[in-house]
């Protein structure tokens, strides 16, 4: 008799890919994917703790799972990922969520088979959260979603310690994978038929600094570009401080690497940037954007912005608005500052009141939406290379795809799903473009 598993993933693409590795490990143990929650013998929550709202979702899910466990006492419930790695989480689960069987951190994913066996045999909560990251365990069997795009992690952890961010605490110090294993993985993905590979890391621009050999992210991208394939290569996330001129030069020459740069700015005021420990100034960021646009004129630049960092004044917030107007990002992910226990910013005075943070984010979103729409409208008439992904979610009788700049395009056609095609943009909005396939 088969056992069935279900993984619920919260948070970023790194987590989404970690879930593919968890799925691969489970399938090696003989588990099969469950079609519904009621059918599952094992449910894993792969969690995120970057903001409080992400954690609240997980606590909410755990509440709901209590009923399921009552109906099916043999069900194993596990919590893993960033929140599991956080101090205090396992204790809180032990006290408040006794229906959970297993908690394990981010450094011991490869131990999953043993931990599940332990959880099955034990009546008490099994906890394994390792303090230190250890080496990278290669050749874990990822079970990727079949399709067109695949994720490849190139580095784990982060050394930056931005003062608001919990990631370095739950993901550990930076560890880069060996270039050869990344290159082998990417080339076999293209050989399997994937059309697009996204390289993942918290700060891909620092890739290689911890390797014995002299090798950086620009070297990796140019090697991947030279592989024999017709696919696309994407990467995220870039840190402005570590974005080298060598990388800009490589990006301006590569053929397969998409002209999309996700370049989180976080704030527009020098004082706040310095309190955030970002390591660049407003002018430094603006100059970098200029250098990128000069070398790669059609670059699509997106960003992350936090409003309401402790002590952020009205005029400092306006500097963020002003920077957004100057850069004219293609899109921005905007966040209300959320204090994370153990980070430096959480201990700072002058936390900005919730209603004020709300007002600021509303103003910022409004501004950016207007800019995104203008930028997208300016694309009407242009010819873009689009990877046709499949039926559009909103309009299933049409197809949806992505430009190299990572913009969604709705195409009024049923032809060429899964192909790279040239599309003329016929309409531009805030959330997606429209286009027609060229013969
Ligand atoms: N509060 C709000 N946003 C945060 N981010 C990271 N930490 C926090 C926090 N404590 C945002 C940053 C980062 C993105 C992934 O999440 O903008 O780039
Ligand atoms: Fe967090 Fe900064 Fe590292 Fe990004 S670069 S993961 S924001 S510490």
Describe it.
The chain is 35% helix and 22% strand. With 439 residues, the protein is α/β, with parallel strands linked by helices. It folds into 4 domains: 3-128, Rossmann fold; 146-258, Transcription Regulator spoIIAA (2-Layer Sandwich); 260-378, 2-Layer Sandwich (Transcription Regulator spoIIAA), CATH 3.30.750; 383-437, Beta Barrel (OB fold (Dihydrolipoamide Acetyltransferase, E2P)). The chain has a 6-stranded parallel sheet, with helices on both faces. Strands 15-16-17-19-18 form a 5-stranded mixed β-barrel. The protein binds 5'-deoxyadenosine and iron/sulfur cluster. Iron/sulfur cluster binds next to helix 6.
What's a concise summary of this model?
The protein is of the alpha/beta class and 439 residues long.
What composes the largest sheet? 6 strands, parallel
Number of helices: 13
Number of separate strands = 19
Bound ligands, each once? 5'-deoxyadenosine, iron/sulfur cluster
The helix content, as a percent range, equals 25-40%
Radius of gyration: 22 Å
Distance between the termini: 52 Å
CATH architecture assignment name of the largest domain: 3-Layer(aba) Sandwich
**CATH fold group of the largest domain:** Rossmann fold
Q: What is the average per-residue confidence, as pLDDT, rounded to a whole number?
A: 95
The SS-based structural class is alpha/beta
What is the CATH top level name of the largest domain?
A: Alpha Beta
Point out poorly predicted stretches.
none
- Tell me the overall shape: globular
Beta-strand percentage range: 15-25%
- Name given to the CATH homologous superfamily of the largest domain: Response regulator
Number of domains: 4
User: How would you write the strand order of the largest sheet?
Assistant: 2-1-3-4-5-6
């Amino acid at each position: 008799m088969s056992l069935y598993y279900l993984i619920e993933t919260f948070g970023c693409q790194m987590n989404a890919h970690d879930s593919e590795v968890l799925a691969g490990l489970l399938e090696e143990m003989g588990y099969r994917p469950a079609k519904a929650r009621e059918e599952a013998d094992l449910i894993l929550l792969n969690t995120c703790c970057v903001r409080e709202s992400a954690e609240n979702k997980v606590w909410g899910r755990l509440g709901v799972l209590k009923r399921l466990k009552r109906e099916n006492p043999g069900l194993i419930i596990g919590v893993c990922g960033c929140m599991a790695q956080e101090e205090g989480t396992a204790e809180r689960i032990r006290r408040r969520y006794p229906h959970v069987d297993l908690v394990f951190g981010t450094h011991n994913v490869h131990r999953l088979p043993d931990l599940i066996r332990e959880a099955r045999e034990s009546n008490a909560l099994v906890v394994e959260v390792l303090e230190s990251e250890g080496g990278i365990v290669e050749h874990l069997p990822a079970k990727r979603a079949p399709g067109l795009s695949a994720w490849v992690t190139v580095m784990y952890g982060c050394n930056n310690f931005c003062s608001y961010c919990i990631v370095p605490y739950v993901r550990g110090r930076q560890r880069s994978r060996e270039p050869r294993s990344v290159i082998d993985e990417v080339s076999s993905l293209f050989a399997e038929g994937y059309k697009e590979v996204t390289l993942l890391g918290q700060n891909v621009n620092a890739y290689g600094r911890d390797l014995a050999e002299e090798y950086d992210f620009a070297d990796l991208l140019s090697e991947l570009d030279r592989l024999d394939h017709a696919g696309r290569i994407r990467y995220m996330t870039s840190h402005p401080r570590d974005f080298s001129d060598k990388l800009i030069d490589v990006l301006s020459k590569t053929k397969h690497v998409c002209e999309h740069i996700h370049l989180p700015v976080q704030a527009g005021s020098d004082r706040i940037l310095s309190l955030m420990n970002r390591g660049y100034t407003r002018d430094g960021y603006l100059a970098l954007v200029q250098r990128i646009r000069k070398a790669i004129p059609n670059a699509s630049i997106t960003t992350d912005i936090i409003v309401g960092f402790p002590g952020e004044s009205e005029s400092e917030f306006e500097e963020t608005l002003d920077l957004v107007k100057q850069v004219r990002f293609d899109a921005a992910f905007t966040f209300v500052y959320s204090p994370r226990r153990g980070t430096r910013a959480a201990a700072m005075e002058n936390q900005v009141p919730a209603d004020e943070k709300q007002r600021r984010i509303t103003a910022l979103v409004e501004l950016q939406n207007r800019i995104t729409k203008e930028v997208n409208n300016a694309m009407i008439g242009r010819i873009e290379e689009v990877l046709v992904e499949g039926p559009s979610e909103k309009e299933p009788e049409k197809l949806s795809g992505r430009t190299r700049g990572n913009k969604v395009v709705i195409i009024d056609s049923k032809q060429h799903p899964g192909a790279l095609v040239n599309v003329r943009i016929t309409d531009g909005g805030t959330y997606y473009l429209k286009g027609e396939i060229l013969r």
